[in-house]
């Protein structure tokens, strides 16, 4: 049940980020809602297609579609009265990233796949929706920046897998993983938690080439 609600809240959070990201693009209601739904449902869809499960999760349970739709419509009207949209965007994105990652890890483990597959699919599920959102709204993808983004998802997924191997019956394993991801993202946003320069791939200048 906890895993189910993680997915629902993650969808709502990502739908809100999709709507906010389209705010300066002069889109109509239908386009904004569509972007919110694609953002919130995209990551899990990619996961289920790659794993070739019997049915994509939102096809099997239409409640996910309704949550994505209603969250997007609500956000379309609500963001107009919110002044600091960027902060709401960052918090909702971090929350969605955390919930989607750990929910995917748990689901993949329940399917019987290996720990490596669970971690990989957890990260893909967590970041894919945001990448789709950023590309469709012509924003620089967060995952391609130097700020911590995919790494918190990886560390959170790794923590969940480790906990499930050592204390598999503990009901809060997913909560610990989600908390780790969310806290790391907040540090990245507010404390400037970036990758060290030696881990960054920088374009060589003309002087360096000479």
UniProtKB/TrEMBL annotation:
Residues 4-78, 91-163 form the Glycine transporter domain. Its main location: membrane. Keywords: Cell membrane, Membrane, Transmembrane, Transmembrane helix. It holds the Pfam family Gly_transporter. One of its GO terms (cellular component) is plasma membrane. It is a multi-pass membrane protein. It is found in: Cell membrane. It comes from the Bacteria. The chain crosses the membrane at residues 6-22, 29-50, 62-81, 111-132, 144-163, 175-194. The keyword Transmembrane helix applies. Belongs to the UPF0126 family. PANTHER family: INNER MEMBRANE PROTEIN, UPF0126 INNER MEMBRANE PROTEIN YADS-RELATED. This is Uncharacterized protein family UPF0126. It comes from Marinomonas mediterranea (strain ATCC 700492 / JCM 21426 / NBRC 103028 / MMB-1).
